[in-house]
């Protein structure tokens, strides 16, 4: 079963999900995607990559990761603390010892599969992240 579907089926009720595409400078810290639980719903902030399909991929990753973390008991506070302690890493979720390593990896699988379905060039998607980082 794909991770997103598994996460959705294991929650007592599907939460509301709100996605905001924002200028990168408006993120809470230097990240392309960020999620928070607010008033029982999931709020996702995605740095604008200049391409709506790329933005959707980041949003899908963040929603999947958040739902999997919730399912598995990994808290938002744990994720935020880890990310803030690893700002020098390209991808904090891939660092050894990460409390949401598995959830991040599964969200990345969903992101990659969705990119394939949308016929997104993965290398061009990566270049969009490089351009984002150069602007900061």
Give a quick precis of the structure.
This protein has 136 residues and is α+β, with helices and mostly antiparallel strands. It contains 5 helices and 3 strands; from the N terminus they run H-E-E-E-H-H-H-H. A hairpin with a 2-residue loop joins strand 2 and strand 3.
Our count of domains comes out at: 1
**Could you say which structural class the secondary elements and strand pairing correspond to?**
alpha+beta
Q: How large is the radius of gyration?
A: 14 Å
Principal-axis shape equals: globular
Query: Strand-and-helix sequence, N→C?
Result: HEEEHHHH
Give the helix proportion (percent range): 40-55%
What is the makeup of the main sheet? Answer: 3 strands, mixed
E-strand count: 3
Strand content: 5-15%
Low-confidence blocks of residues: none
Strand order of the largest sheet: 1-3-2
Mean pLDDT: 91
Q: What is the count of DSSP helices, taking H or I runs of 4+ residues?
A: 5
Q: For the record, give the distance between the C-alpha atoms at the N and C termini, rounded to a whole number.
A: 38 Å
Task: For the structure shown, list the relevant keywords.
single chain, 136 residues, 5 helices, 14% strand
Question: What report would you give on this structure?
Answer:
This protein has 136 residues and is an alpha+beta fold. The protein has one domain (3-135). The chain is 51% helix and 14% strand. The protein contains 5 helices and 3 strands; from the N terminus they run αβββαααα. The chain has a 3-stranded mixed beta sheet, with helices on one face. A hairpin with a 2-residue loop joins β2 (33-38) and β3 (41-47). α1 crosses α2 (52-72) and α2 packs antiparallel against α4. The protein starts with a helix and ends with a helix. The model has no long low-confidence stretch (mean pLDDT 91).
């Amino acid at each position: 079963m794909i991770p997103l579907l598994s996460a959705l089926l294991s929650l007592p009720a599907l939460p509301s999900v709100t996605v905001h595409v924002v200028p990168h400078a408006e993120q809470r810290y230097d990240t392309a995607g960020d999620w928070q639980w607010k008033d029982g719903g999931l709020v996702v902030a995605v740095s604008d990559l200049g391409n709506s399909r790329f933005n959707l991929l980041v949003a899908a990753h963040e929603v999947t990761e958040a739902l999997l973390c919730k399912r598995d008991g990994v808290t938002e506070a744990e994720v935020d603390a880890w990310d803030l302690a690893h700002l020098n890493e390209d991808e904090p979720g891939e660092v050894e010892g990460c409390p949401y390593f598995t959830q991040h990896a599964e969200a990345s699988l969903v992101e990659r599969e969705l990119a394939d379905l949308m016929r997104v060039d993965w290398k061009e998607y990566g270049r969009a992240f490089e351009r984002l980082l150069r602007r900061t």
